[in-house]
Design a protein that fits this description.
Blueprint: H1 6-21, H2 27-42, E1 69-74, E2 77-84, H3 101-109, E3 116-120, E4 125-127, E5 140-142, E6 147-150, E7 164-166, E8 171-174, E9 188-190, E10 195-198, E11 212-214, E12 219-222, E13 235-237, E14 242-243, E15 256-258, E16 265-266, H4 270-273, E17 281-283, E18 288-292, E19 305-307, E20 312-317, E21 329-331, E22 336-339, H5 343-346, E23 353-355, E24 360-361, H6 371-379, E25 382-385, H7 388-399, H8 405-422, E26 433-437, H9 444-447, H10 453-462, E27 468-469, H11 472-479, E28 487-491, E29 494-500, E30 506-515, H12 524-531, E31 541-548, E32 555-563, H13 570-575, H14 583-603, E33 618-620, E34 626-628, H15 634-639, H16 661-680, H17 687-700, H18 704-710, H19 721-734, H20 745-768
Parallel strand pairs: 2-3, 3-5, 4-6, 5-7, 6-8, 7-9, 8-10, 9-11, 10-12, 11-13, 12-14, 13-15, 15-17, 16-18, 17-19, 18-20, 19-21, 20-22, 21-23, 22-24, 27-31
Antiparallel strand pairs: 1-2, 25-26, 28-29, 29-30, 30-32, 31-32, 33-34
Helix pairs in contact: 1-2, 2-3, 7-8, 8-20, 14-16, 14-20, 16-19, 17-18, 19-20
């Protein structure tokens, strides 16, 4: 039998010596002494040594606390008992061979005033008995690092004052008791490193006081219940289980979220995460997540730790993506990411570790796969044995037009099933299997390579010159003293000139007349905002210049210098007389537009909303780069329609700077109008036409034949049925009359990327045939 822990022996000796010498006049104290003696006997510690010099201390409540023993009393009542043993205890920890947990916890139950009980690393073994319910006054129960086994007793739910329950590092089996929902003041539930199995009970959703849930290293499985109503939940750790397949729904005030090494799959809805403003740690590594990586995770307001490694996340990383400066750990390894590592992650910092190996990035400091690896893996699917219930449920998800993982998989299931049927129903060994997991929702590198879209966009974004202040002389030289030959137009936001800098760069110069009632320093805030408008899908700002009017000294002139963009619009490339964009190029253009809008909303602070997007303001160059030429700058808005304007203070909330759902979703509505033209291939010139075409889409969305009847004949034969259906569904959602019913910008981007993926599956299978 294992020897008792020497350190603990000494502590128990002290208790017993005090008990021997203590006065027994107080009946309550005497009872508590006797209870402690009984606990000593059950823990099988030796009797007091005759050579031990007893102290004169008679009050055990005044024993100095140590890391191994702490006793706390209140008005002579023992309220807290903490005993911590050696972490290297053997399985029996020195306990008697006939040790009974029932007797032991029944004895503890006689301490009626005990509120905190912590018995850690004592080698306690056997089942946790129902007699634990006798300790009805307990508020904190910590039995971690023992050898307790069997099921967690339902009687524990009788401890109605329990606020903290910690049963970590034991050998508990069975399910998490649904009766725990009766512990209405429970704040901490930690059951990690046991052998618990089964589902997480839905009844836990009623524990409104929960702040910490730690269930890691068990055998729990199934869907995690919807926990969004747990408004106090801050830590949710279910690492090393079998939960899945859907990303859990949690309240937006999460601080720590650990889903590592489970069976989560499908895509991640960006709306689920972008509102997590308090999230500091996110670990979704070693799962089966697919679909686009969400760049905004890097710039969440409180994020310091991000681990997504070991999934199948796809997407294009750009150097100008934003990061939270407090981000200390980032692991993007072993995914299917392409492009360039964001510059903010390449800055050397002693306090930051960034891992990104085994992707297909152009940064080669860490091992990367060749680009075709990510292309092939993104299109690869894993098949599972066919089950009839899966077939019906996934099909119904697609019919319902549901956005999310099930709809994604269902749509691909139908596409692949149809392609196989075209081959005279002759299917290889996978004839009785359906696609259920590992479906990537984007593979833009392959699908857009014909238009050279991605590589050229990356180069263009990286080659923008630094934002700077120009002199008036530079602008005069660029425009030949603002000669009429350089004049382009007199827009609502000021006159626009075309100029050529000394290095040959073509620029567009916007001249704004502003009132001098406010000093030029008041413009600084707006200029700073404009300086941040640098994105591959925006006509980006290159600099500014401040001057004054010779005709009217009360007027200041601000020159804003932007990239010069060609005049080939997206409309002319769809419905014009020349070359018409293919279906894939049209979706690529829509993706670029949404990425530009996404940057305007979230890439700068404050965001730029209500941009009055028009397809005629979407420009394309000879390499099919898409750039939004007009957006809602605060400075332009204040000068719009006026000969002069007064710049407001940055502290003043204007309709331009204040973000509301209406602002956010108004741009989504404009995107919907652009999608109409992309689909039908005809100019949409009024709101009445929008209503008519919207009704037409709703009527014809039901069948493949009907959908083909309204799509642009130029792309009718090349677009897949499911890709067209996805585009039409998204268009209708964007055009919803109620802003709250419209998708978010991130959701819109996600669906467009998925439409591209479906189209790619068709082309890939046609090549295989």
């Amino acid at each position: 039998m294992a020897k008792p822990v020497d350190k603990l022996h000494l502590l128990v000796f002290i208790i017993l010596s005090i008990i021997v010498s203590a006065p027994h006049s107080n009946q309550l104290q005497l009872f508590q002494y006797q209870t402690l003696v009984r606990i000593q006997q059950l823990l099988n510690y030796p009797s007091v040594s005759s050579s031990f010099n007893t102290t004169t201390v008679t009050d055990f409540c005044n024993i100095e606390p140590t890391p191994s023993l702490t006793l706390v009393c209140y008005e002579d009542n023992l309220t807290q008992l903490h005993i911590a043993g050696d972490n290297n205890n053997n399985i029996n920890g020195g306990l008697a061979h006939n040790f009974s947990t029932d007797t032991f916890f029944s004895t503890l139950g006689s301490l009626s005033s005990l509120k905190v009980l912590s018995l850690v690393s004592l080698g306690l073994w056997g089942p946790l008995p129902g007699s634990i319910a006798h300790s009805s006054s307990l508020e904190i129960l910590n039995l971690s690092s023992n050898y307790l086994s069997g099921s967690i007793p339902v009687q524990i739910s009788s401890l109605r004052n329990l606020q903290t329950l910690i049963l970590d590092d034991n050998k508990f089996t069975g399910a998490v008791p649904s009766e725990l929902s009766l512990l209405q003041v429970l704040s901490v539930l930690s059951l990690k490193n046991n052998s618990l199995s089964g589902f997480l009970p839905v009844s836990l959703t009623g524990l409104q006081s929960l702040r910490v849930v730690s269930l890691s290293a068990n055998h729990l499985s199934g869907e995690i219940p919807d926990l969004r109503n747990l408004k106090n939940l801050r830590v949710f750790d279910v690492q090393d289980n079998y939960f899945g397949p859907r990303f859990p729904r949690l309240h937006k005030k999460m601080v720590t979220l650990v889903l590592r090494n489970n069976r989560f799959q499908f895509g991640i809805n960006p709306d689920e995460l972008r509102s997590y403003n308090q999230l500091q740690k996110l670990d979704i590594s070693l799962n089966r997540f697919v679909g686009p990586f969400i760049p905004s995770l890097l710039s969440l307001p409180s994020i310091t730790y991000l681990d997504i490694h070991g999934n199948k996340l796809t997407g294009l990383l750009l150097q100008n993506m934003s990061c939270n400066p407090q981000l200390a750990f980032v692991d993007l390894s072993s995914n299917l990411l392409t492009g360039y590592l964001p510059s903010c992650l390449q800055v050397e910092a002693k306090t930051r570790l960034v891992l990104y190996s085994k992707n297909c990035l152009s940064n080669e400091e860490q091992e990367q796969h060749p680009s075709n690896f990510c292309q092939n893996e993104a299109l690869a699917v894993k098949v599972l044995p066919h089950k009839q219930k899966n077939k019906s449920s996934y099909a119904s998800s697609v019919v319902g037009g549901t956005v999310g993982g099930i709809a994604v998989v269902g749509a691909v299931l139908l596409v692949v099933k149809k392609v196989y049927n075209k081959n005279n129903n002759k299917v290889e060994t996978t004839s009785t299997r359906f696609i259920l997991e590992n479906v990537s929702t984007i593979n833009t590198v392959k699908l857009l390579s014909d238009a050279r879209y991605i590589s050229e966009t990356m180069k263009m974004g990286a080659s923008l010159p630094a934002y700077r202040t120009f002199t008036v002389d530079e602008l005069k030289e660029a425009t030949d003293c603002f000669d009429s030959s350089s004049f382009m137009c007199d827009a609502s936001h000021g006159q626009i000139y075309k100029g050529k800098l000394t290095d040959g760069t073509l620029v567009a110069i916007r001249s704004l007349k502003m009132s001098k009632k406010s000093s030029p320093h008041m413009y600084t805030y707006h200029i700073e905002l404009i300086s941040k408008l640098r994105h591959t899908n925006l006509v980006s700002a290159l600099g500014h210049c401040l001057d004054f009017s010779l005709d009217d000294p009360s007027i200041s002139i601000i020159y804003l210098i932007f990239e010069y963009a060609p005049n080939e619009t997206l409309r002319s490339s769809i419905s014009g007389p020349g070359y018409k964009l293919t279906w894939v190029q049209r979706i690529a253009a829509a993706i670029a537009i949404v990425k530009g809008v996404q940057f305007l909303h979230t890439g700068i602070v404050p965001g730029v909303f209500s941009n009055n997007l028009k397809i005629t303001d979407v420009l394309l160059d000879e390499n099919f780069h898409v750039k939004i030429n007009s957006y809602n700058l605060p400075l332009l808005a204040e000068a719009r329609g006026k000969g002069s304007a007064e710049v407001s203070s940055p502290a003043k909330k204007t309709s331009v700077l204040a973000r509301t759902e209406q602002d956010d979703k108004s741009d989504v509505y404009d995107i919907g109008i652009i999608l109409i033209e992309i689909i039908v291939g005809r100019p949409i010139t009024s709101e009445n036409v929008v209503v008519l075409v919207k009704d037409l889409l709703q009527v014809n969305i039901g069948t493949d034949e009907a959908r083909k009847s309204i799509v642009d004949p130029a792309v009718m034969n090349e677009c897949s049925d499911e890709s067209l259906k996805r585009m039409m569904e998204l268009c209708l959602r964007c055009l919803s009359n109620e802003p709250k019913d419209r998708p978010s910008v991130e959701d819109t981007l996600w669906n467009l990327q998925f439409a591209t993926q479906i189209q790619g599956l068709k082309e890939n299978n046609q090549e295989a045939l």
